[in-house]
Predict the structure.
Amino acid sequence: MNENIIKYCLNVFIIALLIIALIVSMNTIGINLNMKEQPKELLQVVTIEGLENSIKTGADAFCESYKGSSGELNSTCGKLTNKNCNATSCCILTSNKKCVAGNSSGAIYNTDNNGKTINLDYYYYQNKCYGDKCPDKRK
């Protein structure tokens, strides 16, 4: 019986020694089984910003692209449809159904090739009629 106790103690000692060796080697390699500890390095940071004021509509981008080039703007406004002309903030639709460069104050170029002032009965700027002879103001 003494012999069995010695074998049993030897087996327990060997198993305990193996467990200690396994723990020491895992610690040496850097394997951490502690789940409560947070990671030591940050892998990625993501910043999300609102884009409310930085997105331009097509009409705004159109006007912005011709800023400082009113001659080109006037020529390009002339190629727009009536609907697109009224959608911009840099073109007006005149009483003679031409789209030209302008704003709520009227056409930018209000003279013809001979320097004569072009008198408009009315014009539309962003779908609103300006002038004394607007069709919707007459009765």
